[in-house]
Amino acid sequence: MSGFKPVVALVGRPNVGKSTLFNRLTKSRDALVADLPGLTRDRHYGNARLGRREFIVIDTGGFEPDADSGIYREMAKQTRQAVAEADVVVFVVDARAGVTAQDHDIAAYLRRLGKPTVLVANKAEGMREGAQWAEFYELGLGDVVPVSAAHGQGVRSMVEAALDRLSWPDGADDTELQTEGDAADAVIRLAVAGRPNVGKSTLINAWLGEERLVAFDLPGTTRDAIRVPFEREGRRFELIDTAGLRRKGRVFEAVEKFSVVKTLQAIESAHVVLLLLDATQGVTEQDAHIAGYILDSGRAVVVAVNKWDAVDEYQRELLRRSLEARLGFLKFAPPHFVSARKRQGIQGLWKAIRRAYESAMVKMPTPVLTRLLQEAVAFQAPPKAGMFRPKLRYAHQGGQNPPVIVIHGNSLEHVGAAYRRYLEARFRKAFDLEGTPLRIEFKTQDNPYA
Fold first, then answer.
1. Is 241 annotated as belonging to a binding site?
2. Who has greater pLDDT, 266 or 109?
3. CA–CA separation, 312 vs 190, rounded Å?
4. What InterPro entries does this protein map onto (predicted)?
5. Is 307 annotated as contributing to ligand binding?
6. In terms of CATH, what superfamily is 366-444?
7. What is the CA radius of gyration of the chain?
8. Is 245 known as a binding-site position?
9. Nearest alpha-carbon partner for 144 in 109, 94, 108
10. What's the whole-model pTM score?
């Protein structure tokens, strides 16, 4: 797993269609946001892909580079941080409104930075190439790419133009099975993720037995994802702390520079993610977004609830119910209740981390998978869909971290979600999988007589 995911920031003045374009790219209205206290306009983060190339998209508020007061100043801070985090900037303008003075201000700001930039004219549906595009060259950012975010026209060309400005590392497009050697000997990359101020650095310090990382009662006190080599009971780990800001001397930088990007990229590069929650705050929407991102990334996960000593029995019961309601999609990862500050329960996390890693890297022989599949079908056949009953013939492993099982047969497009869950439960029980997603793919064989 290379862990390389470039970052594309959408920038422009208000009402040019950045959020519509963001939703088009991410194919979702859900986004991870930097929800720091005191920030008026959040940055929104989402996953997107073009073919086999994946990238992170940041949606920003309307940008006024010279704003010096009120909501517009806060929005400008957020946008400047998004540009700083990005590998390439997509500058969105309104094709129908033409170039405005504010567009010139934004273009001048982007030219000063010298970061790769793609100029995109949105709302261009029905407009033909011609003299109307000439004025956009005044911005000094090269060719303009006409798109319609609402209708999807030109969006692929825009993404290709943006990604072509990047240097992709070797293997970034590789989607083949990656085993990374023997799971018993490999270094386990462990990312500790969660909202600001839930105790991530405190937990790692407790594990290491020293003040290796800055721990301070302020949201976002770690600038970058910090990697710490660590060995425990003969196993080698690489701990990744993914908080927001790191202290420089005695001065803490502004809280608004908290970077979600570092957390997302650390999750991508990890084998196992420890999702840390705050018992005093309950399970928040932001926690659910981070958990959803971990699941979408396919990483093994261990859920830990910190500050368990700070809540009474009534609050604990409410929290357990909240875990079931909001994080029910992580039911394969039972929660652990700890206190990093008092070092209570933290040693038990290591057993769960190792088990999650071993489950994620499990090897499933084809004869065993096929036998399990046939036993599952014999016990409960897939229901008919109209005139068709799916026929599941054989299975093999298609990947690790997360484990992927590929099932071959006929009419498999008619296999419903309930039967997929039934098969997943059978495979999980047979291989004793805990703490890792399990993906099942169906491949229907072509009919040679069609």
1. yes
2. 109
3. 30
4. G_ENGA, GTP-bd, GTPase_Der, KH_dom-like, KH_dom-like_a/b, P-loop_NTPase, Small_GTP-bd
5. yes
6. K homology (KH) domain (3.30.300.20)
7. 24
8. yes
9. 94
10. 0.68
